Amino acid sequence: MTMPIVIRILENPKQHKAAIVFKNSYLIDEKDLQGTGNSYAFKCDNGCTVYTTKMSSVGEVAIYSAGTLVATLDSIYIKNADNFLQGYTLKAGTDYKLMKAGALNNANNPVKVYIVADGAGTGAVTDFDSITNEIDINGSGKKTVTVLNIESSGITFSGYKGATAPKIYSAGFDSLDCKPIYTADANTVAVGQSAVVMSPGYTGCAVEHNYNDFAMASYDFKSSNSNTKAWINFGDISITAGHELTVKVSGQSDLKISSSSVKNYAYVADNIDVNVSWDQKAQNDYFFAQIDFTNDAVIEFENSYLFDELDLRSNRYGKQFICPGKGCTVYTTKMTSAEVGIYMADELITTLDLIYKKQDGFLVGHHLSPSLDYRLKKTGDGNMNSIVKVYIVADIAGTADVMDFDSDTSEFDIVASGKQIVTVLSVNASGMTFSDYEGPTAPKIYSGGFDAVSTCIPVYIASSIENAAVSKIGVVSALATVDLGSVDASNNYHVTKFVDSQSTVSIGQSVVVMSPGCTGCLINHNYNNVPMTSYYFKAENETSRADIDFRDMDISQGYELTLKVSGQSDMKIGGWSAQNYSFTESNMEISIVWDKRRPSNYFIAQIDFIVNNGSAVFGTLISTLIAIITALL
């Protein structure tokens, strides 16, 4: 049997008259049977199934139809061979009641009852009683499992094993259209542990938000790993002004949050502390937030690694890497001290400052013999203050020229080097811009090392030599590679630091809009140590055509980017497949707006501006392109 890919949590709502009416189900508990009438009326328009937690007394609570006893809850509490609740089927009817039997005014025993309409979905249901401290969901042949908890204090899910990244909902299996409180990130390389912070009883469903009566004192999550980045995503929030929750992050000013809009934050700190505290003062207020912790910037490509300072700061063990086959070559940005060394079996081989050498403007690189036990780490015990990028590539990937872009340089030229492929390693993670191309062949640009040319998707594909000559292509990453298309003495590409600024776009030009750090590679899609970045492109003039090619994309449902084109309705774009659009407008405006709220989400888009008949006319100003990306990284 396989583990389910979706797990849902069902919790108790507010204390007095706690019943929650979802679109296709009810959640009823003992508080709905207390006081006048001792009953709760419900409908089964097309039939329904009743699941209940265990009743310790016989006949205390029962189901009635038009005043006639149908069954007592203790009699329908039956489990199958797989330890899941069997459920009790009720035929179609509109006059059902869950009623306290006998003369007692109150239902003395706690109970939770989940009643779901027939046809509202399928799933296995298990219960969590007051005696049991833990259970395992070992697979039911269904991908959806609901846990019905007799306690009001909630459930913790951990130790997941399965082939697919799960989701957790605070509702029953019929509520697939509600918001998940937890979405596991499939990018296991980039993401460590996650935590969920939520107002007690929050459902994520539009029909009704439910709340427990007890106050939430404080949530306190701490990552003891060094160099940690915390992604805080408030996926749903509605808090009245004056009733704010407080977010405390080590080294940062306290945040007071009260808004109905989704909010996202990202922080980097050694041994980061994140604290979310809130006292519920208004019954209709609610929120949930998922906090994802990452502790690496390392990117493992098929035949190479990209390391940076986040992988080394305060980490005495450093990062392990291998050199297969005939070995590998190490390229590094400039280091002025022996802070970082390369070790084999705990023996220091060399330091990065010693291997930083250039010849004719290109990095020489340091070759390492084959080994499975190399480690890049600090040479001392103190914190590392330097910023560095290290590109390690296996010999089997071939060779190419590598240049570095240091913090003191604002621009340089890639001049003909006798090779077709040139890689740029930038100490500044915010990226670089390629422009003023000269050469006999239309180039391509990749957001990775030279080994990525054969396996990854290019961020830019020049349609012609002329297109490359007039286009300014921004690559928001620390590593980029140019395929010049041929070996020629006239090859030249101008490289500058990527700057978030306004620029003009003319007919015949192209621009690249990409999620910061996106690699375009199948094995590892994101380099996550890129600061928050905005894009802003602008040009104005006459009618033209804009062809937009989202050539690589994986954006989770609920986290879509917005594509705005003048004269068109806004488009929400997401999913994992390539998408293409073409627009023709007078004085066109285009904007792409996106908040990166999931570490593994990414996209690459190339926008080509051409005259409406499809032929390029260079130097003529066209439309307005405003591409704005807010990327929390």
Biggest β-sheet description: 5 strands, mixed
Whole-Å distance between the termini?
38 Å
Helix content: under 10%
How much is the radius of gyration in Å?
A: 29 Å
Total domains, how many? 4
The total count of helices amounts to 3
Oligomer: single chain
Low-pLDDT residue intervals, each spanning 5 or more residues: 1-16, 187-191, 532-536, 614-633
Number of strands: 52
Which term fits the overall shape? elongated
Average pLDDT score:
81
Helix and strand composition category: mainly beta
Strand order of the largest sheet: 11-12-1-13-14
Strand fraction: 35-45%
Task: Spell out the blueprint of helices and strands.
Blueprint: E1 6-10, E2 20-21, E3 25-29, E4 39-44, E5 48-52, E6 61-65, E7 68-72, H1 73-76, E8 88-90, E9 93-100, E10 112-117, E11 124-128, E12 144-149, E13 167-169, E14 182-183, E15 194-198, E16 219-222, E17 228-238, E18 245-249, E19 255-257, E20 263-269, E21 273-277, E22 286-294, E23 299-300, E24 304-308, E25 319-323, E26 328-332, E27 340-344, E28 347-351, H2 352-355, E29 358-359, E30 362-363, E31 366-368, E32 371-378, E33 389-394, E34 401-405, E35 411-415, E36 421-426, E37 432-438, E38 444-446, E39 460-461, H3 465-470, E40 473-475, E41 479-483, E42 492-497, E43 510-514, E44 544-554, E45 561-565, E46 571-573, E47 579-585, E48 589-593, E49 595-596, E50 602-610, E51 624-625, E52 630-631
Parallel strand pairs: 1-12, 1-13, 11-12, 34-36, 48-51, 49-52
Antiparallel strand pairs: 2-3, 3-10, 4-9, 5-8, 5-10, 6-7, 6-9, 13-14, 15-22, 16-21, 17-20, 17-22, 18-19, 18-21, 23-24, 24-33, 25-32, 26-31, 26-33, 27-28, 27-32, 29-30, 35-42, 36-41, 37-40, 37-42, 38-39, 38-41, 43-50, 44-47, 44-50, 45-46, 45-48
